[in-house]
Description:
By secondary structure, this protein is an alpha+beta fold. It folds into three domains: 2-93, no CATH class; 164-307, Beta-Lactamase (2-Layer Sandwich), CATH 3.30.450.40; 321-469, Reverse transcriptase/Diguanylate cyclase domain (Alpha-Beta Plaits, 2-Layer Sandwich). 57% of the residues lie in helices and 14% in strands. It contains twelve helices and eleven strands. The strands form two sheets. The protein has a six-stranded antiparallel sheet with strand order 3-2-1-6-5-4, sandwiched between helices. Strand 8 and strand 9 form a beta hairpin. The radius of gyration is 50 Å and the shape is rod-shaped. 24% of the residues are buried. Residues 8-13 have low confidence and may be disordered.
Amino acid sequence: MISFLKKMSLVPKGLRYKTMIAFALMSLIPLLVCVWLVTSYIFPNINLFLGLSLGNISLILFISIVISILGFYTTKEMIDPVIKIAGDAKDIADGDVDRVIKVEREDEIGDLSMSLNAMTQKIKENIEELKAYGEKTKLINIEINKKVLALSGLLQIGSLISSSADLQTVLDFIARKLSDLEDGAVSFVMLADETSGDFQVASVYNVDETRAQGLKIKKSDMPSRSIVIDKDSGAKPEIVSRILESFDLKNIAMIPIVVSKKQHGLLAIGNKKDDYAFKDDETELLKVFAKQATIAVENDLLIKKAKELAVKDELTGLYNESFMRGRLDEEIKRACLYQRPCGYLLVDIDGFKDFHERFGERKAELLLKAMGEILKGSVTEVDRVGRMAIDSFGMILVERNKKQAAGIAEELRLKVEAGLAKILQLTEKITVSIGVSENPIDGSTADELMEKAEKLVKNAKSLGKNRVAV
Length: 470
């Protein structure tokens, strides 16, 4: 019974169904009642019913039917727009904000459709505004990420410089971090050659390195000021056109690297994008990176200068190669002036590379220190001992001819063979090969004596090592 009542209920029915029921209750049922009254009471006594004729009664029935039809039409005209508005509103709710409700009426339904259209338009405008804000927010986030990336890169560059990383490592890192600021960007660093003064590519990122190998710019042609070439720039200098062609670029921003009012290099970033213009913040970032590159170059110059001024090797405490070369030149000049000989020994450790690989860095350093102590104990106060390379040492023997120098070399060879392994607590012997040269027999300059000694060391090694070559 309950189930039957639920099925007969109007609550779950649509507006159209409910209105039709209402129309039936208000129009059709009364009409049927009228028909029943007419057939039951009027037609049987038609002559007695107020004198109405059959034609008049038919007219009344016809008018009633017409009124009922008009009522049905009016109800339909009211219901159809409401149903259409409901369907359109559902589509709008599903996301179709471009839909327009086309109901032109001057009653409440028309007002409802106009209100819904206005509401939809407002929603559409708000959505478009939100999209615009979203795009702006996206661009802002991209710019923020660039700034964070740039700041992180600058901090890392500063850390590399402060840790005395070599210049090439720092420049490679600068080029990579600068290229990361723009998708598809090419970045490179050019430095002046110490000998010729011409500028060549020292580091490049995001482009084939073979493109950069052939690019060399004379010092006189090098741009000495900041240059930006993009869609907003005018004519470009010839040297800039050459750089653009070398790296296959259309846009470029370049800043010179200047240390103590002297140009030492160039930092640049570019791309192949059409209709592109560099932003002010991008050029400002480039300037900041250029300052870091300048600091790196200046730091490298200071380190080189310090090494030139230093006379002692940090590991062994012996004189360094630069000092030994200058001192040997002085001793040769003095020997020539007083007609006295001057001997030079080059002592090279046999198999040092294999020793380093087998025993490691720490043991190799101990070997070099022990070798330095043995060498210092083998000469007089006027002689000089220095470290010439990783595994070779030089000895300046004042007023010693080749025979005397060879005797000292042989004593040194035997001392190393007998004692160096014991000092390091090794079972295998450690030996040296020694080359002996003398002024003026083998040369009249430090370079000539050193070159002669190097050749003799190579000969000694080719003959089996652990020997003195004169």
